[in-house]
Amino acid sequence: MKKRDYYEVLGVSRDADASTIKKAYRKLAFDSHPDRNPNNPDAEEKFKEASEAYEVLSDPEKRQIYDHYGHEGLKGTGFSGFTDVTDIFSAFSDIFDGFFGFGSSRRSRSGPVAGADLRYDLMISFEEAAFGVKKEIEFPRRKSCETCRGAGSAPGYGPTKCSRCNGTGQTGMSRGFFTIRTTCPTCGGSGVEIKHPCEKCKGSGKVMETRSLTVTIPAGVDGGSHLRIAREGEAGDHGGPPGNLYVVLHVQPHNLFQRDEYNVLCQIPISFSQAALGAEIEVPTLDGTHRLVIPAGTQPGGLFRIPKAGIPHLRGSGRGDQIVQVILKVPTDLTERQREILAEFEKSAGEADKSESGAEDSATYNRKEDRKDKKKKKERR
């Protein structure tokens, strides 16, 4: 099913500010909220659609990507929208508080709570960042206990109403005319007690596991990029969805190449004779070797461009270029014959300079003499 334009979904213009976008979303979320539309799949879909649009347009980075590349561009960020309304309540709790009374009934301590997000730092090579790669990763996380199905109670038993707070999740203490209410220390605010805890998870409803996962890294990523893998974080509470996994990428330095946005930079040494006479040299690139023509008379530090030999663009088609800077390699162990040749070259170069200088002086002298002759002829007249 083709997704609608996010600005169209919220009914705002493409230059709408953050306040306007938030106001439009609040109205749509209120009208299509599941608590106001029970057993209405259409309303729930509108609620999810509006929430997805708001998540993108309220985030400056996601909004910029969407404005330039549309829905396709967001796929490279790991964004995949919402699959459950409880994800939405957790993400936008500041908006839903106060919708119905003092807070949303779906966000009570005993209701579904999304699991914690996790972070995984992954080191990849320069080439892997350029061309993309699939990586197998392992990380520890807490998952829902299979024995008790996350309830925390032993099979055949269930949680009971907390005897201290009578299921309210709060206890009160009177101080004169005032009553101070705090979270119940017995049930932690959940309103229930587990009197027969599950032996496997000790009543927590969760157990540790080592999760194995294949991560697809797109071509063109750079150090500091992160991938959001939905629902691969820790298990939620009371039937809430898992959190997300964020894979943060780090790129190993290369021994030859450096990156400048989507261009690749490198320095290649050449000899004096190659610089003076010109040559064809082989230059390493990300794709193999490339034959580069060095024109005669090339100066140290000269730059040459190899088109489309750089980093593939992360979003869209095309590649950057490779920029090659030549540096002069000065020999340190000359033979006697090589020294003689260089000495002869230096001598001949010096004589040529003198000859050119003398020719210039002679020409200058001749011009002066011509001016003198013209002046004398004029005086005679």
Question: What do these coordinates show?
Answer:
By secondary structure, this protein is an alpha+beta fold. Among the domains are: 108 residues, Helix Hairpins (Orthogonal Bundle), CATH 1.10.287; 71 residues, Sandwich (HSP40/DNAj peptide-binding domain), CATH 2.60.260.20; 42 residues. The chain has 9 helices and 15 strands. A 4-stranded mixed β-sheet has the order 10-11-15-14. A 3-stranded mixed β-sheet has the order 1-9-8. The protein is elongated.
Strand and helix order? HHHHHHEHEEEEEEEEEEHEEEEH
Radius of gyration: 37 Å
Sequence of strands across the biggest β-sheet: 10-11-15-14
CA-CA gap between termini: 102 Å
Query: Do you know the CATH architecture of one domain?
Result: Orthogonal Bundle
Brief write-up:
This protein is an alpha+beta fold and 381 residues long.
Secondary-structure topology with pairs:
Layout: H1 6-10, H2 18-32, H3 41-57, H4 60-75, H5 85-91, H6 93-96, E1 118-124, H7 126-131, E2 133-144, E3 160-161, E4 170-175, E5 178-183, E6 192-193, E7 206-217, E8 226-229, E9 245-251, E10 258-260, E11 263-270, H8 272-277, E12 279-285, E13 288-294, E14 303-306, E15 322-328, H9 336-380
Parallel strand pairs: 1-9, 11-15
Antiparallel strand pairs: 2-7, 3-6, 4-5, 8-9, 10-11, 12-13, 14-15
Helix pairs in contact: 2-3
Using brief descriptors, characterize the structure shown.
381 residues, alpha+beta, Helix Hairpins, HSP40/DNAj peptide-binding domain, 4-stranded mixed beta sheet, 9 helices, 15 strands, elongated
